[in-house]
Write a structure and sequence with these properties.
CATH superfamily of chain A: Tetracycline Repressor, domain 2
Radius of gyration of chain A: 19 Å
Number of helices of chain A: 9
CATH topology of chain A: Tetracycline Repressor, domain 2
Number of domains of chain A: 1
CATH architecture of chain A: Orthogonal Bundle
CATH class of chain A: Mainly Alpha
Largest interface: A-B, 42 and 42 residues
Helix content of chain A: 55-70%
Number of strands of chain A: 0
Oligomer: homodimer
Distance between the termini of chain A: 69 Å
Structural class of chain A: mainly alpha
Shape of chain A: elongated
Strand content of chain A: under 5%
DNA sequence: GCGTCTGCCTAAAAGGTTTAGGCAAATCGG
DNA sequence: CCGATTTGCCTAAACCTTTTAGGCAGACGC
């Protein structure tokens, strides 16, 4: 009997593809076994359980996002950097909706601390180097930017901005203008 | 055999309670049947399927949120209104995490159009009456506020702002200050 | 080539989803 | 007030997903 060559890595990658194609809620251990033409139980040598699979997809997505982010940020500063990073999130969510959804999976603290999530915070902080913000305002701003990026992307993807006018692209551009303006004129406490 | 008195309404309400207590992912038709001490199949006279249950919980949550929002907005304007509405979302998510999670369920367009989601957009627009924004900037601002409210609340709940300093309450306050400032000084295109 | 280890297998239990069809309680018309 | 109809919850059953236990054979180390 030929071996399928399963690894945790390949399972996570295939799970990510399946999430993008069929939606995160259809990513099951069973579906994955079918995709590898292997019996379900075989996957349990590589995965602790079903939630473990989701976690691994989340970690994969966070890492891909962080890689794209640091590539986009290289050589940019100020509004240019802000726009580049923001677009990384939006574009990734559009290209990989299932992976993006997986990236929102709640991770337990140790896993989160070891994840690429840390790099995300660093990247946002890097964007803020182009603006003049001291602590604790810098941390407030990091959190605000994270909120806007995530909030906008998830509402847009969820159809929350459904009515057609104005264009959501237009809103996105204006939102980034607004954030840039806000960061340049951050209000004193 | 005595009847349990099930209705779609009661099922949605019990589902919402269960979501808050155990988490949205543990809200199943089976669990709900157990709670009513009734056989599983009986629920299928009141619910089309499992997804239908989630949808009804989502609609319930959206309505409760809208009710709280309009109560909070009554008699307030400007930053006062902004803060009040923002706190409605944050407080609701803290009090009812399962319901809040359910409210993020993607609804099909007809359901969404008939839902309280419409009132949410109107409430945000009402807040903006306290600021001087003409269309299309007003719509851009509606979307921005929605993004920040939703993004902040979901990141905070998901533990995204985990490190302890500064306090997330402090960030929240400063975020609202920043939004107020931004709306008063909305950048020209 | 032999032994060990590992990877995928079969088997099986347990629980969730959903449909079909039945009986009895509630409700309504006379 | 009683018979007919409707409605609500039931049993039964099929199907799917998750997860554990234990087995056999292919890959690898010597």
């Amino acid at each position: 009997m030929a071996r399928a060559g399963l690894t945790t890595e390949r399972l996570a990658r295939a799970g990510a593809e399946l999430a993008d194609e069929a939606g995160l809620d259809r990513v099951t251990v069973s579906a994955l076994a079918r995709r590898f033409d292997v019996k379900v139980a075989s996957l349990y040598s590589h995965l602790r359980n079903s939630h473990d699979l989701k976690t691994r997809i989340a970690l994969l997505a966070l890492e891909e996002l962080a890689d794209r982010g640091s590539a986009a940020l290289a050589g940019r500063a100020g509004k240019d950097a802000l726009t580049a990073l923001a677009n990384v999130y939006r574009d990734y969510a559009r290209e990989h909706p299932g992976r993006y959804a997986a990236a929102q999976t709640r991770l337990d603290p140790e896993t989160a601390a070891a994840s690429a999530g840390v790099r995300h915070a660093q990247m946002t902080r890097a964007v803020l180097r182009g603006y003049d913000l001291a602590e604790p305002d810098q941390t407030h701003a990091v959190r605000l930017l994270g909120s806007v990026f995530h909030g906008y992307v998830s509402l847009e993807m969820g159809g929350g901005f459904s009515h057609s006018t104005p264009d959501t692209q237009e809103t996105w551009t204006r939102t980034l203008d607004a954030l840039d303006s806000l960061l340049r004129n951050w209000p004193a406490p």
